[in-house]
Every structure is written in structure tokens, then in C-alpha cells.
């Protein structure tokens, strides 16, 4: 890309002449559409400067030494640039200038600068390593941090070397009080901030993690899902309005597959494959984690696909916003006193369809495509405890009946 190339240009300040009638020569470094200008310490008679060739007129006797000095400046800048290309995953024009001047480029790095480095790299990897929805979240995280620095420290930025554990604690309080965020949202913002700090460490901008001892505040997660009775009620209801009937069917489909919205919307006939067990499976890559989901196609889900299949398209197309809006209508009509969203279907699949039917947590985690079983345990641990309690109660009743014989 053109803006990825380094440009070093000499400019003669003809409007400012010294007592000898000579103008200062400055050097402008441009990289990724950002520039830095600095004085070279050399002067030239303006009429002798050939801008197109970037040299002093070689016909003049004194020009040879000056042209040599300017050429050395360019060579040193290029050498610094290639050194950074080899040793640094990301850098900007200020880093090039600092290293050219012989300064330690890690000393003056700021938190928001590293945020910019991270976000610039992430932007290039959208659709490759990251989903489109992930990038805006880091832009938002940077804004929250920037707003906090202005509010708390009355500064535009914050030096990495000044980061202490107290910074995170105050950031937590700021988001809670000033931004009115819930703890689960705050934890996400802090998680993204910590990723930026880890990048700073890996790049050599920080020698250690100032947030190493930080422990996220626990959040009691309430898992909203349909009970077996509510799911049965949803399945058995027929809507006269086509839009509501379609959304109901798609919701039920996700209750039996656990597909996230993006994967449901992009489902095609080539995502239905016959497995080693000769049964049909859904095989699709999850955009959020880039992990391949492999989900058994249960009879209820298959019947909905058969109902709407149109060539390679398996389900109706509808936006996530409209989908969730129609679900509110559906809940009111059926009499389900819960805030239904598409994600509730995924929770229903994990609980009512899988865990309540004694599918092990490890398998549930794999089918849902969670990156770690800890995520599954954090979300559904209490539900499993409830199921265990039911089994223990059944065991006690069974043992009680045996003793009575």
C-alpha cells in the first residue's frame, strides 16, 4: 500500500533567511499519512537548491559536502525504518524519529498511542482474524479510556510508565458512576484495556504488567432461557401473521441448534453435512471465535429447514433488530413473561435441550463453540447444580423406598 511506504523529503525554508542570505533545510518524514519535521542544522542559498532532485546544485564547489551530509541523513532514516520493520510488529512515524535521534522509543509511549497501534492492526484483520463487530468494541474502549483520562487526570493521554493498579480501580469507579455502566460491561472494558497493556509489554514499551494483581469483580449472571413448558408452548402456537410465524420458527430452530444470530443468518445448504455416524450435522465457522461449530441437526430443527428451504437458502432473511423486535410481540401474545432476544434461544439450547437432558458440560461447551469450558461453567454452573440436586432428590426417594421394603 502506498501510505505504508516511508518518505523522507528535504524542504528549504526560503521565506526565512539568515544574515548570510541562506535558508534552513528541514527534513520531513512521512509514514502512514503521519509526518514529523525536524531541522537538519544545514543552510543553503535558496537559488542553489534543486527541489526536484533534492540536492544543492552540484556545479557549486561547496555543494559536494552538503549533499553528502543530506544523503547521510536519508540513509540513517532508512536504516532506522528497516530496523523497526524487522524488530517491531507495529510502529509509527514518531518512533522512526525518536530512534533516528538516538532516543529510547519506549520511554515516552502513552496508553492511547498503544491503543491506536492495536486498533490499526485489528482493522486490517477484520474478516480474517476478527469479526466486524469486534473492532468497534475496541474503538469504544479507547474512547472510554480517553474520557476517563481527561476526567480524572485532566490530561489528553497517560504515560505507560505511570500506570499503576490504582488506575484500573479508578477506571472501574468512573465507568460505574459517570457512565452508569453495569459491572459486566465494565469488566469487558477493563478486559480490553488489559489486552492493550499486554501488547505494550510484548512490544517492549513496558517491562512488566502494572495490573498483574487485578481481580475482576464478580458478576452474578442470570441465565434467561425457556423452560420445557415455555418451549413447548412456543412450538405449538401458530401465528396468522407470516412475519411472526417465521421469526417464531427461526427462534425455535435456534433453540434446537444454539446457533448465534450471524451463523443462523448465513446458514446455507453446504453447511448441512452427513457425519461419520451417518446422521446430519450443521458445520459452520463461528465468526466471533473463528472456531468451527459442529451441531447435530435434531428432528425439530430439520423440520423447520424443510419448511423454509429455497435452493441454497435454508431460512428467511431478517435483520437482528427486527428479529428481536418481533420476539417481544411473540412473547406478549403467547404469554411468556421474559425479555426474549435471539440469544435466549442459544441459552435454551444449552439448558433445556442439552443440560436438562443430561448432556455433559464438556460436550455442551464443544457444541456451543466456547473457547474455554470455564465460559460454559460460569454461565451454566448453577443450572447444573440444580440438575444434580434433582438427581440427588430422586436418589434419596429411591433409597427411602428400598429401606421401606
Structure description:
- The chain has 405 residues and is an alpha+beta fold.
- It has 14 helices and 8 strands.
- The chain has helices at residues 63-87, 93-100, 111-124, 134-153, 165-177, 183-202, 228-236, 242-255, 261-265, 299-308, 320-334, 342-354, 361-368, 373-404, and strands at residues 7-17, 23-31, 34-44, 49-50, 55-56, 272-274, 280-285, 292-296.
- Strands 1-2-3 form a 3-stranded antiparallel β-sheet, with helices on one face. It has a 3-stranded antiparallel β-sheet with strand order 6-7-8. A two-stranded antiparallel ribbon has the order 4-5.
- Strand 2 and strand 3 (34-44) form a beta hairpin.
- The longest helix is centred in the C-terminal third of the chain and has 32 residues, at 373-404.
- It is elongated, with a radius of gyration of 31 Å.
- The N and C termini lie far apart (84 Å).
Descriptors:
single chain, 405 residues, alpha+beta, three-stranded antiparallel beta sheet, 51% helix, elongated
> Spatial order of the strands in the main sheet?
1-2-3
Count up the helices. Answer: 14
Summarize model confidence as the mean pLDDT: 87
**Shape, principal axes of CA atoms:** elongated
N- to C-terminal separation?
Answer: 84 Å
Total beta-strand segments: 8
Main beta-sheet annotation: 3 strands, antiparallel
Q: DSSP strand (E) fraction?
A: 5-15%
Level of helix content?
40-55%
